[in-house]
């Protein structure tokens, strides 16, 4: 459910479309969020303060306020325990080409969990995760042409690139070597980016996605990551043609969306999973045409050489041979998951059938907008479980165990405020 009423309460001056304000760089306007429950000493940054916050207390450790002039409330992880707690962050002012977004919902991606626990050894603590951001425009810079105050919008995995390299100029900015990710990345001014587990964000308009009419903010938020991650390789590799047969390995946050897009394209879809109990969900609920248990040799043999392509959404390590055998000659297997161990593959399994093994990472802004428009046209959304901020640490534990169908989405607009956190603190499990 979109939070229409919540939006107007914070931005009374700009809630009327007729009073859209074009902000100049020297504007004195600031975003004001409610004061947090803070420690008695504003400068308290000791290890004890951080540890108290990790245990679920609502004590705020201050951020370097001089970096950016605008204050925001967020949930942050401070160490590899991955425990999230309320935290005050700073955001930049709305520049000439920027929009300020009031965040209403933010999806939880498995990469959020990897990052806050520093499993990829690249965490820049404190980490404020979240790259499936959905909300409304609260302010626009004076040069902004695409958006107006009040528009429903989203932000995905990136917030800037060099905008001048070959990848950027060809419309593949998701492969820019200087890409700035939505969180845990170094921005152009040297500060670390903070993600969508926050009440607001400021983003260059180039990297903002418009939510089409009819697309709900909560169920649409995960499409900004999961949706484009499966849509882009299907389009790029020609695996979006009606009548073609595609296999989807894994039925989780990515896999369930892949099935929906493939069916919307008019394809024959076979879900490949290690979990027999997912058969009914795959076929009856999501509409897959067939279901194969990958550990059953007879079932795998029955579909050998029948598929034009495979989207491998699983992050578990596996032998590629048995999956490549399912492809027709010149078939393509696209890797979307990131297994910890090196791939196990024989060159013969590729060469003999002229097959392709490729990877794919996210998608461009243009393709993301196209994906969102396609999804809205076909009534396609992610299957979600909506949670409050007080449930976020429990959700992370459940995500690690695979206990979600299929995407957690945080109700930021209704549950991330000083008042709500005071009454329902974020427990550190």
Automatic annotation (TrEMBL):
Keywords, alphabetical: Lignin biosynthesis, Metal-binding, NADP, Oxidoreductase, Zinc
EC top class named in words: oxidoreductase
Protein's UniProt keywords contain Cell division: no
Pathway this chain belongs to: Aromatic compound metabolism; phenylpropanoid biosynthesis
Signal peptide start and end residues: none
Enzyme Commission number(s) from the entry: 1.1.1.195
InterPro entries recorded: ADH-like_C, ADH-like_N, ADH_Zn_CS, CAD-like, ER, GroES-like_sf, NAD(P)-bd_dom_sf
Molecular-function GO term, any one: cinnamyl-alcohol dehydrogenase activity
Listed PANTHER family: ALDEHYDE REDUCTASE
Oligomeric and partner information: Homodimer.
Family according to the record: Belongs to the zinc-containing alcohol dehydrogenase family.
The name this protein goes by in its record: Probable cinnamyl alcohol dehydrogenase
Source organism of the structure: Saccharum spontaneum
